[in-house]
Each structure stands twice: as structure tokens, then as C-alpha cells.
Amino acid sequence: MYVENASAPVRKPVTVPGLHAMKAEGRKIVMLTAYDASFAAQLEWAGVDIALVGDSLGMVVQGQRSTLPVTLDQMVYHTSMVARGLSATLLVADMPFMADRNVDHALEAGARLVGEAGAAMVKIEGAGAHILESIHALAGRAIPVCAHLGLTPQSVHKFGGYKVQGREHEAAERVVNEALAVQQAGADILVLEGVPTTLGERVTKALDIPVIGIGAGPHCDGQVLVIYDMLGITPGKRPKFSKDFLAGRGSVQEAVAAFVAEVRSGAFPAAEHGYN
Asked: Active site at which residues (predicted)?
């Protein structure tokens, strides 16, 4: 069992105020998913700022067709495993599908993910009225919130598939307004997924909180990928916004370190990883 990752370089713990300072100073934020203690230890060693226990585990770990079957119990289980592999990296856990259907359920899920599983922040998709109420309630009880807009995987049936969002003018305006709304509700950071590069830049400039992109272009305050995608081991076609960082390298550790270096320098994502 990992109690502390002794092999990782010593560094100060990443905090919510620290992430805000990184945006203010123009330092890129690095985020990767992890689903167990061993992968978490790789993120810790490489100096990743944020580890995300995404409900993407439903697809890349469980082999589901979407993230929708993932349960809160499963999120608590995987989050607690990842927590054991971390010391300085900040831990974010996804709210699974319908865990945020009202404020009471969101508070219960947040309490379990933070208090029981060891997360430092919870991630919640969308910006409907009940979501904004939940963000406000969680923030009011000192549970930091990562909002998630753009291509939100829990809305896959509503979208008709995993499609780029915000390409039309009206849709882009909606994303900007939603981003401002989740910030006003109390979100501390925002994951922006699957939107045109120009929209990613616009949202990043409009917000005071850090914007972490995934398929949102190079102008975001940071980048996140699913670790199985960036290692090239997810079955099927790799997403356009991802890159195989394991290719030509000898270990997972080297691949994660390369991802960190390229995000920090701005080399990743390149133009071919974005959308028009």
C-alpha cells in the first residue's frame, strides 16, 4: 500500500490558491487522470499538479460504452486508491452521473468523495440551474469545485455522441455565459472540453479562475488528458486532442514526465490537436 511516494521529488502540496496564482503568473497547470495508486505515484513523481479520478474509468477501466454506468461507490473506491499514491499532487474526483441531481445529493456525494475518499476537490458537469445551486452549496461548505463545460460526456445522449461543442455563434455564446455562471456560483477551476481553439482562448481570458483544456486549444491555463489515451493504450482510435507520449520512450514514468514538460513549455497541444 502507498502511504507516501518516497521516490517522488519533494515539493510543496498543490493548493487551490496555488492554482489561482499559477494562472495569474502565466504558469501552465498540468492535470492527468489516474484510477489507482500505482498510476497516481507516476503522476506524483513527474510533478503533475492535479490528479483527476474521472468517471472516464467507466470506459477505459471497466469497458463501458459511456461514463453513465459509473456509480458513486465506484468513484469513492477509485478515489481512495489514488489518494494513497499522492502526497503533493492535488486530487480531484468526478461526481458521477446523477449524483448532482439536486443539492442534497450533491452535498452527500461531495462529503463522501472528500471526507471518505480523500479528494481535495470535486468535479461537476454542466451549468443548469440545479448545477449552479449545487456548486454554490458545495463551495459554501468549503468543498472546492471544478466545473466542466463544453463536451460534457454525461450529456452524450443529449449531444447525439461525442461532438465538438460551441462551433456556432449561439452555442459559443452559451459556453461563455455558462463559464461565467459557474465561476460566479463558486467554482475554483474549470475543465473545458471539445471546443474550438478560439472559444477556448476566449473563455480563458474571460475567467478569473484557471481553465484546464482538453481539446480546447493551447491558450487555456493548463491541459488535461486521460492517462490511457496519452500512453496510447486505450483500445480504438486515439482522440484528436490527445498524443501518444509513450511512443519512443521506455517507461510510463518517462511518458508522464514528457507530458508535463510539453504542457509547461506550451509545446502541447499543437495546432493538430485542436478544433476549428
From this structure: 193
